[in-house]
Amino acid sequence: MATCDGAQTLPKVLDGYCRLHAPRCKWRLIIVENGSRDGTGALVAQYQDRLPLHLLSSPHKGKNAALNLAVEWALRHDDNDGLFIFTDDDATPAPDWLLQWERCAAAHAQYLVFGGAIEPDWAEPPPEWLLRLVPMGLTFGLTASDLAEGPVFPGLVWGANMALRRSVFAAGYRYDTSIGPNGNAYAMGSETELTRRLALAGYTACFYPHARVSHFVRARQLTLDYVLEKAWRFGRGKFRQDSPGTYPEWCGMPRWMLARFLRECVGYLRASVQGDADARFRRRWELAYLRGYFFEARLGRRKLGKRVLITSYSGELGGMEMRMAQEVRYLRLGGADGSLALRRFAGIDAWAGRLAREQIVVAEFDPPRFFEQWDWRRWNLLRARLWAAGRLRAFRADLVHVAWCWTNYGASVLWLAGYCRLPAVISVHNAFPATEISDWHEPLLRQAFSAVRGVYAVSRSAMAHFMAIYQPYLPASTRMAVIPNCVDTDRFLPGPDLRRAARGALRLAEDALVIGAAARLSEQKRPELLLDLFVLLRRRFPQLHLVMMGSGPLEAALRDRVLAAGLESCVTLTGFVTEVEALLPALDLHILMSRSEGFGIATIEAMACGVPVVATEVPGSTDILRDSGGGVLVPADDLHAASAIVADLLADPGRREAMGGQARKEAVEFYSSAVVGRQVLAFYDQLI
């Protein structure tokens, strides 16, 4: 629990802990003192001889910051996968509270998120009108008495009595510190923001009514003013939890809420004229809630920093999408707020679930494509004006970042930004061929590029190809930069222990000779050519093994081909790998046989792991390896020449070792997250 000036309620609560029936397993009580001025810390210390108690002090204000501190401490000191139970400094547990939570954890092993019963402990008898009209959950954090054991809506799991398994926090989830009690008129949603975020990531919640606490309700909380203030706070918290762009908006507010506000005003006037006190109260409560929502939308949002919407014409999960998510992280370091908006593709839900752990929002956005698709272009342009423009405005962005993946793939949303009078930047992620601009598209393209304030490309080649087409349309003041993709050099690491662990995971002998690639199994990456290269190399190195990490449209055909050739004992197709850094150190060489590359993130990831790299001499890969001592280039369309170069490397372990050391050095010096992050923030400086 977190406590701030809890000296009045804590004695009763801690006495309740002293009366608890001990569960079979070990338990610990962590209390985080959060800026108290009433001697709370000294009071809690008096119980340390009577309870398995650990007292922490949070340097940051706010309940959620304090709870995150407790979570971090518990993760370091307790490694069993037990329950992390959260409660308040004014919630007294029933004597069998921990026994019931222990039974709950065993009986509902399929759940990771739990809510317990929260009963009232009235300081004085509540007035009749309050019991009859006030929503007890939202106002006092009380659970309904008739709520049954089993699955429950995550918004009904509340902080005075909730539990999450340790694995949830080990996976990286934390409380949002911008929401919840922090000593002033705060936005509500301290725990429900977390439980709803977990629900979006696929974690279902369970209600367990037998684990009970009594929540103290003070006399001052039984007044009309307090109830309406809580409604206002609830509205503020609701705005914080709504993803930007969820609903069509007008002047920054969802249109349906504006209509609802007008209906509530009319309803309040009607109830006043009719003398219906109950109806008048209900209308006042709804209006207070809506005013809180509007307050946060119009005033609170200004405190959250500039908002950048990062979007793209994306068709699959790959390096560009990973870079877009990394861009959000960089923007946060610079004090801005970033979010992603993409059309649906295979794997987006699982990816969005992983990003939800970091509170990175992935919204669905698929505007009509009148540049990318020739058919129905006039109809799509009309739809863009009538519908998609409003949808883009609903994201409340101060700047639109368009990730340009191919030729004109991104031009439609760039035009939308200009149409909505929103400044835009472009990031170029591929070296694509020249294309002709039709007479119909020409004026639209000029409109689209009028919004552009900056362009950066992930490689010199990508920038050259982009400028060959679009330089005539760029404003003279456009900021230009080449900013490579990055690799987390604290995550992708070299080392003999990591190499042994990776080979163990792949069931490879420690002394085996292994080549491979981490790449999507698609036509661009040409995995079938890598398999052909492997077959040629096996003639000279019969013990050679191939590892292909990734999935994609060619995966089934590759598996069939491996089986047909009888290579299943020496070729491993892992499928999609979430933590590729755990397998890359197994390789003696990382080989990318791509037809084209914008940059080649897998190449620098392998380099960071100390693995020497080989790539075809195509734009993107050439930018990385042209002057590199950590890898070599091979002809893109001469398999026998490529085989000879790779064979020389496989036959020379000393050379490979030296290349691996140089590859790691270059990855840290040129492509580490910190180095690239500084370049990204310098690019955005003054643009937003």
Automatic annotation (TrEMBL):
<keyword id="KW-0808">Transferase</keyword>
<dbReference type="InterPro" id="IPR050194">
    <property type="entry name" value="Glycosyltransferase_grp1"/>
</dbReference>
<dbReference type="Pfam" id="PF00534">
    <property type="entry name" value="Glycos_transf_1"/>
</dbReference>
<dbReference type="InterPro" id="IPR001296">
    <property type="entry name" value="Glyco_trans_1"/>
</dbReference>
<feature type="domain" description="Glycosyltransferase 2-like">
    <location>
        <begin position="2"/>
        <end position="102"/>
    </location>
</feature>
<feature type="domain" description="Glycosyltransferase subfamily 4-like N-terminal">
    <location>
        <begin position="349"/>
        <end position="491"/>
    </location>
</feature>
<protein>
    <submittedName>
        <fullName>Glycosyltransferase</fullName>
    </submittedName>
</protein>
<dbReference type="Pfam" id="PF13439">
    <property type="entry name" value="Glyco_transf_4"/>
</dbReference>
<dbReference type="InterPro" id="IPR029044">
    <property type="entry name" value="Nucleotide-diphossugar_trans"/>
</dbReference>
<dbReference type="InterPro" id="IPR001173">
    <property type="entry name" value="Glyco_trans_2-like"/>
</dbReference>
<dbReference type="Pfam" id="PF00535">
    <property type="entry name" value="Glycos_transf_2"/>
</dbReference>
<dbReference type="GO" id="GO:0016757">
    <property type="term" value="F:glycosyltransferase activity"/>
</dbReference>
<dbReference type="InterPro" id="IPR028098">
    <property type="entry name" value="Glyco_trans_4-like_N"/>
</dbReference>
<feature type="domain" description="Glycosyl transferase family 1">
    <location>
        <begin position="502"/>
        <end position="665"/>
    </location>
</feature>
